[in-house]
Design brief:
Layout: E1 3-9, H1 24-33, H2 35-47, E2 53-54, E3 59-60, H3 71-84, E4 90-91, E5 99-108, E6 111-120
Length: 129
């Protein structure tokens, strides 16, 4: 079964400047409350094949209109991010493997951590269940 799973990606220690990521239980509750919005986000990302990243104030590529993604579509992404409490948007650089919906990211390039919801097209056994 294709599923959206909770992925905690911690590159370094969680505490950065006294802040912490959401507890797993709260993230799971948030996902359950906003399951339909997460589903809509997933459909959008899958449809916009060449859009690799949308954050709160930037995209990759820098000019999404060049790949057929309108500014209205980017605004819809950001509206859904706010509703789903994923303020750092999505990352789909390796969309064949996973799509991340980034709930929090802290730190700088030399030391950072993030916590995301992850969609994986196949299950752990590689058969899609």
């Amino acid at each position: 079964m294709k599923s959206l799973i909770l992925l905690a990606s911690a590159v370094l220690a969680l505490a950065v400047c006294g802040r912490q990521h959401w507890p797993d239980a709260e993230m799971i509750e948030n996902f359950i409350r906003h399951r339909s919005e997460f589903g809509r986000l997933l459909e959008m990302v899958q449809a916009d094949k060449y859009l690799q990243r949308v954050d709160d104030n930037w995209t990759d590529p820098n000019d999404p209109k060049g790949i057929g993604v309108t500014s209205e579509r980017i605004a819809e992404y950001r509206r859904l991010f706010a509703s789903c409490a994923v303020p750092r948007g999505f990352e789909a650089y390796h969309r064949d493997e996973q799509i991340l919906f980034i709930a929090s990211a802290m730190g700088m390039a030399t030391g950072w951590s993030s916590k995301s919801y992850a969609y994986r097209a196949t299950g752990r056994n590689g058969r899609g269940d």
